[in-house]
Amino acid sequence: YEWAGSGYVCDLEGNRGSASDSLDSITWTELIPSSSVSYYHVNSAGQVDVLLLKDVTGNCYTYGRAYLYTGEDGISLGSGTMSAYNSAAALTNSSGTGGKYLCTISLTGSSYVGLALGRYSASYERVTAVRALSRAQSAERSDFYQSGDGWYAEIGGTVWPVSDQVEIYLTDADVWLSGEDGLAAALAGGYTFTPYYDRTPDQGGQIRVLAAG
């Protein structure tokens, strides 16, 4: 399993509540530091049969464009005559604009990020971690290519894996696409792309969002 240190638990591909039966999704390193292991269980045979990793693949985040709401635009969790408003975040991507999530973590304006979520109450989920995405150099259609089962982009001499769940924002049309089908459609459109990544490739980073315009 994997998580971002609190909140929901996912498999290594980012599916909430599921478990992976191997470490095959971790292709960039053969050693995982102890600081990335939140929990493990040893069975009666002395084998580790449950392993919970902390933010190793980056796949336990949901990526898109985040908006922060404060004051009366946030979430009221107060009671009585005096309402208390808490900041809230919403994330827009190919799944649409989700509900507001209780958010006490700072966001800078409207930005491309990854949000890790957890349950706060029966009514609300909360943001448990924010992964700010970094902007790479602009890329053209010719910079993208397929190798094996995945897509890659060579930008400024660096080869970047493209997430198989990449979110693609067509800025002029205000439309979101996602995944390999969305990427193929965007590449056929002759756009210039602004890639956003979570960390460098040697640390398992991938292109998580493409702004196309």
Mean pLDDT value? 94
- What does the main sheet amount to? 7 strands, mixed
Number of helices: 1
Rg measurement, Å: 19 Å
- Low-pLDDT residue intervals, each spanning 5 or more residues: none
Q: Whole-Å distance between the termini?
A: 37 Å
Specify the overall morphology: flat
Determine the strand fraction and express it as a percent band: 35-45%
Topology order in helix (H) and strand (E) letters: EEEEEEEEEEEEEEEEHEE
Q: Could you give the count of β-strands? A: 18
Assign the structural class, choosing from mainly alpha, mainly beta, alpha/beta, alpha+beta, or little secondary structure: mainly beta
The helix content is under 10%
